[in-house]
Amino acid sequence: MICVHDKKLFLEQFNRKISMTPTLKLACGRQGSLIFLDLHPLGPGQQSEELLKLNFCHVLNKMIAQNKRLLGIVLSVTLIVMIPFIAMQFSNEVNWSSSDFIIAGCLLLGTGLILELVIRKVRKKRTRMVLLIAISTILLLIWLELAVGIFGTPLAGS
User: What pTM was computed for the model?
Assistant: First the structure.
C-alpha cells in the first residue's frame, strides 16, 4: 500500500509503470492523498520498486479518524476509573486497591469493545438493541456483585 501527498508526481510515475504493475485506487483522502494497493505481485526475477515512500503518519491518522468511537471508549473508561481515584484523594470512604482499578478498567473496556463490535457487525436494529441492552445489563450485574455482593457469590469477597 502506498500513500501519497503529491498527486502530480505520483501520477507521472504511476502512468509510466501502469503497464507493469496493475493497481487499484482505493481512496482519496481529504487532503487529496491517494492510497493505492498493488493487486498482482511481481513475477520471478522482477525487482520490486516502490513508487513513493509510505507515509506512515498519514495512514495512522486515517486509521485513528476511522476509529473515533474506539478512542472514545478508551477515553471514557479512563475518565470513569479516574472518578474513584480522585475521590480517594479527598475522602477515606472510597478505598480502592490497585486490583480494583484493574478489574474496573478491564470490565469497562471489555464491555465497551463488545458493544462496539455489536454496533459494527449486527445489522438488524431490533437484534442490535436487544444485544446492547443484554450486554449492558450483564455489566451492571457483575459490577453490583463485585461492589456489594447482591447475589452472595465468592466474587464479592464475602
Answer: 0.59
| Of residues 135 and 2, more confidently modeled | 135
Q: How far apart are CA 4 and CA 31, in angstroms?
A: 10
Percentage of the chain lying above the pLDDT 70 cut: 57
Three-state DSSP at 59 gives: helix
DSSP code of residue 51: S
User: Sign of torsion, CA 54 58 63 66?
Assistant: negative
What average pLDDT does the segment 92-107 reach?
94
The C-alpha angle 45, 47, 52, rounded to 5 degrees, equals: 160
Residue 86, pLDDT > 90, answer yes
Amino acid at 30: R
State the burial class of residue 40 (Cβ atoms within 10 Å of its Cβ: 0-12, 13-18, 19+).
Answer: exposed
| CB contact set of 39 (below 8 Å; sequence gap of 6+) | 22, 23, 24
What's the mean per-residue pLDDT of the chain? 75
Record the cell numbers describing residue 20, joined without a space: 507493469
